[in-house]
Amino acid sequence: MVREAVAWGEGAYASTLLADAERLLASSLTTEDVNVLWSAAVRRGYLEEAPWLDGRAWLREIVGLVTERYGVAELSALRRDGGPDVGPALEAAVLAEIEAMAAPLTASTESDWYGAVRGVVPALRRVVDEVDPDLGFRFFLRALKAYGVPITESRYLRYHELGERLGYHELVVDDGSLQVWGEGEAPPASSEA
Fold it and tell me: From CA 155, how far away is CA 189, in angstroms rounded?
């Protein structure tokens, strides 16, 4: 899957994969934090005492696949592209959205019968604070999508506004996977929680 993502669209995602993996590898996040984030992103149960992956090894594998595909000059250009310039106001906006959804996201990720993961919200906070708000927001969106956490229309619009400020294509925010409900509507009770 990563090989396909690296090659897709003549390398359209390669710089993002490389930058994200290198940023996480160089970060102060623990391997446990990385494991929690990956587990939540794919809705796969994670137990600390029986880990199904080593997040840092997975990140090194991603870096290896990108560097295997592209030459030195191409890699240099990929690394220079970088991500959006995120200042304190944008970082605060991302943290505010995570905080606003902390309770429902925690309830969904910790009670899911198939993919229970504990500590997702604290790991997201650490990504935003210690690594990169852009990456933290993308992990946050991925977790909301993976667990089908319902959001309101107004929150949906705020996510798109944040995405625009971060330079995202609209499908990064919602590829049809977000569960959006009207302001007065209540989502149906989940049979999976």
Answer: 20
Q: Give residues with Cβ within 8 angstroms of 169, minimum separation 6.
A: none
Asked if residues 60 and 31 have their Cβ atoms less than 8 Å apart, the reply is no
Q: Alpha carbon of 18 to those of 44, 58, 140: distances in Å?
A: 23, 12, 19
| Mean pLDDT of the region 42-51 | 70
Residues 75, 93 share a domain: no
- pTM for the full predicted model: 0.86
Rounded CA separation 73/91 (Å)? 32
Return d(Cα 11, Cα 147) in angstroms, integer. Answer: 29
Instruction: Tell me how far apart the alpha carbons of residues 149 and 179 are, in angstroms, rounded to a whole number.
Output: 6
Q: Is residue 73 part of a domain?
A: yes
Structural domain of residue 150, as residue ranges? 88-181
Mean pLDDT of 53-58: 83
Mean pLDDT computed over 1-18: 76
State the residue for tokens 């149960």.
45
With contact defined as beta carbons under 8 Å apart, do 178 and 145 qualify?
A: yes
Of the candidates 81, 107, 134, which is a domain's last residue? 81
CA 140/CA 120 separation, integer angstroms: 9
